[in-house]
Amino acid sequence: MKALNSLGFPVLRFNFRGTGLSQGEHDQGIGEVEDVRAALHWLDAEYHLPLVFSGFSFGAAVGMRAACPDARVRAVIAAGTPVVPVAAESEAPRVYTYDFLQDCAKPKLFISGARDEFGPRAKLEALVGSVPEPKKLVFIEGADHFFEGRLRELREAIEAWMKQAISSQPSALT
């Protein structure tokens, strides 16, 4: 959020349904895709600017489903992308699939902690290797799934990638 805002992009940060004080109930990633679509629609209506989607963990996994086919979204940032089943104590494991990325020709940044327990390096490298260009994969050394103690490096990696994307495609992102 801070990285994109520092580059002049308006940012909308929200909780998915049933998280924090938000209304509704968790919908196993189905309704949450609609939440992202609604957020993209609001940002477009409010600012009329090119959109960059950025999501973290579950938000990256479901948000890319909404952002990749949306023509208003010019680039996608996925931080802490989960590639192994994840389970909370009270629910069945969430299994993430990314077949939809085969049709995503937008610039994509995947950024992960080198010690991310939900995004092991080999599995994330295989995923990113399977998707079309343009794409970039960045590992933050020493970082876990939540980038604890490494948020500065996360922000710097996003800012550097965005500056490169803006300079190589200025009309697409500005």
Describe the structure.
With 174 residues, the chain is α/β, with parallel strands linked by helices. The protein has one domain: Rossmann fold, CATH 3.40.50.1820. Helix content is 37%, strand content 14%. It is built from 6 helices and 4 strands, in the order H-H-E-H-E-E-H-E-H-H. The protein has a 4-stranded parallel beta sheet, with helices on both faces. Helix 3 links the parallel strand 1 and strand 2. The longest helix has 18 residues.
Q: What's the structural blueprint in terms of helices and strands?
A:
Blueprint: H1 2-6, H2 30-47, E1 51-56, H3 58-67, E2 73-79, E3 108-113, H4 121-130, E4 135-140, H5 151-168, H6 170-173
Parallel strand pairs: 1-2, 2-3, 3-4
Helix pairs in contact: 2-3
**Count of helices?**
6
For the biggest β-sheet, the strand order reads 1-2-3-4
Q: Return residue spans where pLDDT drops below 50 for at least 5 consecutive residues.
A: none
Could you tell me the number of beta strands? 4
Radius of gyration: 15 Å
> CATH superfamily membership, which one?
Alpha/Beta hydrolase fold, catalytic domain
Could you write a compact summary of the structure shown?
37% of the residues lie in helices and 14% in strands. With 174 residues, it is an alpha/beta fold. Helix 2 packs across helix 3 (58-67).
